[in-house]
Amino acid sequence: MLRMKKTICILLLWIGCSNVFAQSSKEKVMQIFIDSLLNKMTLEEKVGQMNQYNGFWEVTGPIPKEGNAKLKYDHLKKGMVGAVLNVKGTENVRKLQEIVVKESRLGIPLLFGYDVIHGYKTISPIPLAESASWDLEAIEKSARVAAIEASAVGINWTFAPMVDITRDARWGRVMEGAGEDPYLGSKIAIARVKGFQGDDLAASNTIAASVKHFAGYGFAESGRDYNTVDVGTSTLYNIILPPFKATVEHDVKTVMNSFNVLNGIPATANKFLQRDILKDKWKFKGFVVSDWGSDAELIPHGFAKDLKEVAMLSANAGSDMDMESSAYVTHLKELVEAGKVDITVVNDAVKRILQVKYELGLFEDPYRYCNPQREKELIYHPTHLAAALDMAKKSIVLLKNATPAGQGNPILPLSKNQKNIAVIGALADDKNSPLGSWRIASDDNSAVSFLEGFKKYNSNFVYAKGADLVKGPTDFIHEVNINETDKSGFAQAIALAKKSAVVIMVLGEHGFQSGEGRSRAKLDLPGVQQQLLEEVYKVNKNIVLVLMNGRPLAITWAQEHVPAILESWQLGTKTGDAIAQVLFGDYNPSGKLPMTFPRSVGQEPLYYNHYSTGRPNPNNVVFWSHYGDELNEPLYPFGYGLSYTNFEYTDLKINTDNPSAISVTVQVKNTGKLAGEEVVQLYLHDRVASTVRPVKELKGFKKILVNPGKSVLVEFVLTDTELGFYNNEGAFVVEPGDFEVMVGTNSTKGLNAVFTKK
Ligand code: BGC
């Protein structure tokens, strides 16, 4: 290691001109260092860099066979491991790093990867919830906090953000992404990458990000995880790829491929995706890591006959690092020797991996992330908890707020002096479920529960569970066992509701009902909760429904009957505090849905930016595009969310004087009594094009704070980037013609105008 440090110093001196620290010189120093290291490496050591092992304590995929720990240790000592995952804690990380640095021939430090998805110990809202904030600064900060905590425990690489666009609420991993829209999804993806990687990757509190899953994983047929993906070129280029491309342009360091087959070719062995698009067309400089065991899964996919063929196909297709399949470490050397994989393929992969290590500063100090003092000081730091609370309240979406009969005001916000409140629902008293899925390092039961948060504002309530949501223990790797039958607590809850002035029902999904491997065929309130809601409604209609869920739900009955509905997702560590702030009006809700909520599960996949059909409009005979037993329209559209105040949109103006910077302005007035934030959304529709365009596409948004009675002028500038699209050859084209513009409060409500692009 000392030798390596010395080499870097000598190289720096050698470059030694006045702007030695300028980017290009730094780049040169790095390239010289990497080339010289590569020259010293044996083929076995090179292949070793392309091998990633799971650690020995936790799993985030199918449990590996026991007894391979010794082999893994052996490989570490021989420099045959480039990275590990699921090893955390400065002490553990240092121990493993020491083995490699001190005992392997070249001492090339390891990368330590971990799924830091929405926080490490301080847990932020699930990513889908954060996305409902449309607040890029807050989202970036949330990722920053996650990086600070993760880096403090030795982790230098996160498998996040997941940037898969998701249109099907049945898919369990919708909780992990930014929802259905590629424009919003790209902005959020960039914010998250910036948050993780910061301005200086070599700082001790920044970590490398990995955008995943490349590509198409969010389009699993029928929402069933790991299922086949078959999409056309238009969807691939215009919907699936944009967030990946955007983050590559913002220097994301790694990309993870995916489990799915895309149009017949598994993503891990997909040359078109990984070489032609990612590395050649987009000039991606980082490396591609496979998903957990996705190399070996080429065999059950029916794409490779054995592990040797797996290694050949994946490496040649541009998958640089093998996570937990042992395909490369077992077979790549012999494949190169037999001429089946060219040495340039291996050299290129290894250079990419070494470069990320270099940029992280690991060659200068492999223990850069192993300071126990930082670990002690930074986990659950008060500023992190404050950021988690801020993010949580901004993630909440007000779905309905009606004025109950005989009352002058909408039911929310509640008065801090409100008497005689009933709180019903098992989730109200749950400190675990609100942490959501994919929070593997978090402390169980560490969330502020709904009841705990509520109590800080108002203790005039009585709580009744009503019914258990789950039976038995829950964890990250086992199926959740939902209570489908036990209603023994109903009577007590109903009696309580009967004598209360207002009933708050906290219902929804368990935190482990979404996430990987957790698809659902139903989108209703699980278990006996819908029945509980209807029974309570019979005795007291004054209900506030607080939803906790990891995906859009079809809560059509509730929308029709219950006067107030608050979407609180799974908000992480500060759940109860954030919900209470909104319920009692200390924070005016400002979230907007990043995914469409269906009326019925049968409408899925349901999304706002669909194409028209040849028969879009109602007809007096059946021959138009519709269901016989359900509306086409969603329950809540994309971009939807209410406030405790009202916003009025006027004066939509378009100025096309400069055709390459078309200006769109609108006045937004707060006509209510409370200050509030509004997400002003701009949608475009290209009326006629060489490939059909969606009925509407988000192409701009601004989150503004407006005081009561005041107006704000909001301007959007449309350039070719917003007006163009990818054709079926993958070329970005801008075509002249008429464009419809809508600026408004959600994807279905706003002011409309038309302009012509010359
Ligand atoms: C998931 C990835 C994750 C990996 C490592 C896989 O099962 O699909 O998203 O990063 O495991 O934990």
Are there runs of 5+ residues with pLDDT below 50, and where?
A: none
The neighbouring-strand order within the major sheet is 11-16-15-14-12-13
Largest sheet: 6 strands, mixed
Q: What hetero molecules are in the model? A: beta-D-glucopyranose
Count every beta strand, where a strand is a DSSP E run of 2 or more residues.
Answer: 25
% residues in beta strands:
15-25%
Assembly type of the chains comes to single chain
Radius of gyration: 27 Å
Q: In DSSP terms, counting alpha (H) and pi (I) runs of 4 or more, how many helices?
A: 23
Instruction: Compute the average pLDDT.
Output: 95
What is the overall silhouette? globular
Percentage of residues assigned to helices: 25-40%
Please state the structural category.
alpha/beta
N/C terminus separation: 61 Å
In words, what does this structure look like?
The protein has 758 residues and is of the alpha/beta class. The protein contains 23 helices and 25 strands. A 6-stranded mixed sheet has the order 11-16-15-14-12-13. A 5-stranded parallel sheet has the order 4-3-2-1-10. It has a 4-stranded antiparallel sheet with strand order 20-19-24-25. The longest helix has 18 residues, at 23-40. The termini are far apart. The model has no long low-confidence stretch (mean pLDDT 95). Residues 60-61, 85, 115, 159, 212, 291-292, 516 line the site of beta-D-glucopyranose. The site of beta-D-glucopyranose has 9 residues, from loops.
